[in-house]
UniProtKB/TrEMBL annotation:
May be a heme chaperone, appears to bind heme. Homologous bacterial proteins do not have oxygen-independent coproporphyrinogen-III oxidase activity. Binds 1 [4Fe-4S] cluster. The cluster is coordinated with 3 cysteines and an exchangeable S-adenosyl-L-methionine. Residues 50-286 form the Radical SAM core domain. Its main location: mitochondrion. InterPro entries: Aldolase_TIM, Coproporphyrinogen-III_oxidase, Elp3/MiaA/NifB-like_rSAM, HemN_C, HemW-like, rSAM, rSAM_sf. The keyword Isomerase does not apply. The lineage of its organism: Eukaryota, Metazoa, Chordata, Craniata, Vertebrata. It is found in: Mitochondrion. This is Radical S-adenosyl methionine domain-containing protein.
Length: 453
């Protein structure tokens, strides 16, 4: 059975390798909260360390865009009327309700994503930050990121967003070739994008990230390397490198089916990924996750909270979250998704304070699957201490030492399991997707040894 909650978490982070995996079993009921840890009905610890329950990061989804890019199937709508004010009010209300439900005492980071959150009025950002501070504490050093589409409008609003409380900008460059930007349906050119990066760097030095995609139609490794050289002259200290994934329902998907466009093959794609990793490394960037590179320690703390299995709250249409709803007596972590369609979402928030459409209680195995899959995306992998927070009884060695598949990955040098924990090697990171089925199967066998397969 595919673990749907895990699929959903991975969707916005897993872009290299393409395939999404998971092998969950049924959910289990949890019976009580004792000294900061949760227990399943049979008494085994569910290992929610108290510190994990006190804190959360917060994701805010702005669901509108001016037009549809040819490749994108994220939850976004082209607005018919201007209802920004009401969306902003509902976001504040939903923040308040979900913070109350989670009972967290500290929000560690906030990420305004979308859609195109740079279309929102900057006061939306300050109002939401105030709503957080009214209900709980927002850490002084909290990272507050905003995704910016590098159009002239986005650029002129940077200063106001920074005054509103944004201290990190994530800029969607996607490409530095005008022809490709047009083909992808972007509403900016490369010059506008570079000027936006320049201005953002003046406002938040060292805290500007860029998103760029490879494996674009008609792309060659040589042109990609030239583009990266240009990017490396202009960028700040954080780069997110995404492999363009053809998503069902997009224009790109149709163009590929009707052979109007073709994508580079797997071999070329692997070369592009490797040349980008090499070039970024030569320019002082450390790869800290499959798709993310930082120098001068400019890692994304918000995204790290997902990969480290910490709690996060998602507000806005289609946002998802992972937290224990302690405020309503909840004792187990839930995967929550908010209603997708903005008008319906508005109605539900107005009526009930929040618009959670789907709640899935995560059982012990499902939680560990998430910790495994997300954790192995990081170059530091899963330390023994990290694993123990979620699995106090079975260590990484207890689980993986008896698997012949895992022994083979270790022998080939794709994986390492030592005093530092379990992690992928440089080559292994590019092969993570192909190793996950065996790792997940072994995890399931050890957690539920008697379950029929
Ligand atoms: C959902 S967008 C929102 C940010 C902003 N609207 C923008 O377009 O720059 C976040 C990032 O997801 C990545 N993305 C979206 N669709 C993708 C796809 N089909 N394949 C790979 N990356 C994708 C893009 O790099 C984009 O910057
Ligand atoms: C692909 S990531 C890009 C992050 C960026 N590279 C950075 O380092 O800041 C951001 C996108 O993931 C999606 N996303 C992130 N967290 C989410 C959540 N909790 N719920 C729904 N979508 C989320 C949003 O569409 C957002 O535009
Ligand atoms: S890539 Fe960004 S701007 Fe383009 S449709 Fe998706 S969310 Fe909107």
């Amino acid at each position: 059975m595919i673990n749907r909650a895990l699929q959903q978490t991975m969707r916005h982070t897993l872009r290299v390798g393409g395939r999404m995996l998971g092998a969950g079993t049924g959910q289990r009921c949890l019976s009580g909260l004792r000294s900061g840890q949760l227990f399943t009905e049979d008494g085994s610890e569910f290992a929610q360390h108290e510190s994990l329950l006190k804190e959360a990061s917060l994701y805010v989804h702005w669901p509108f865009c001016l037009k549809r890019c040819s490749y994108c199937n994220f939850n976004k709508y082209i607005p018919k009327d201007d209802n920004n004010h009401i969306v902003s009010q509902c976001l504040q209300q939903e923040v308040d309700t979900l913070l109350q439900l989670s009972k967290v005492s500290c929000v560690t980071s906030v990420f305004f994503g979308g859609g195109t959150p740079s279309l929102a009025h900057p006061s939306t950002v300050s109002d939401i930050l105030e709503a957080i501070s009214r209900r709980t504490s927002l850490a002084d050093e909290a990272e507050v990121s905003l995704e910016v589409n590098p159009t002239p409008e986005g650029r002129t609003k940077l200063k106001d967003f920074s005054h509103a409380g944004v201290n990190r900008f994530s800029i969607g460059l996607q490409s530095l070739l005008d022809e490709d930007l047009t083909r992808l349906g972007r509403d900016h050119n490369a010059h506008q994008a570079l000027r936006t990066v320049e201005d953002a760097r003046k406002l938040c030095p060292g805290k500007v990230s860029v998103d760029i995609m490879f494996r674009r139609p008609g792309q060659s490794t040589a042109s990609w390397e030239a583009e990266l050289s240009e990017l490396l002259r202009a960028c700040d200290d954080h780069v997110s490198l995404y492999q363009l994934t053809p998503e069902r329902g997009t224009l790109l998907f149709k163009q590929l089916q009707s052979a109007q466009v073709t994508l580079p093959d797997d071999h070329e794609t692997a070369d592009m990924y490797e040349s980008a990793r090499r070039m970024l490394h030569q320019h002082g960037f450390l790869q800290y996750e499959v798709s993310n590179f930082a120098r001068n320690s400019a890692v994304s703390h918000h995204n790290l909270s997902y990969w480290k299995g910490r709690q996060y709250i998602g507000v806005g249409p289609g946002a998802h979250g992972r937290f224990v709803p302690l405020g309503e007596g909840g004792t187990h972590r839930e995967a929550r998704t908010q209603t997708l369609e903005p008008d319906v979402w508005i109605r539900e928030v107005q009526q009930g304070g929040h618009a959670t459409r789907r709640r899935i209680q995560l059982g012990h195995l499902e939680l560990l699957e998430e910790v495994l899959v997300m954790g192995l995306r990081m170059t530091e992998g899963i330390t023994h201490e990290h694993w123990q927070l979620f699995s106090p009884q079975l260590t990484l060695c207890d689980i993986f030492n008896s698997s012949t598949d895992v022994q083979e990955f270790l022998r080939c040098g794709h994986l390492t399991l030592d005093d530092g924990g379990l992690r992928c090697s440089w080559n292994g990171l590019a092969l993570l997707d192909s190793m996950l089925p065996a790792l997940l199967l072994q995890l399931e066998r050890q957690i539920h040894p008697k379950a029929p397969r």
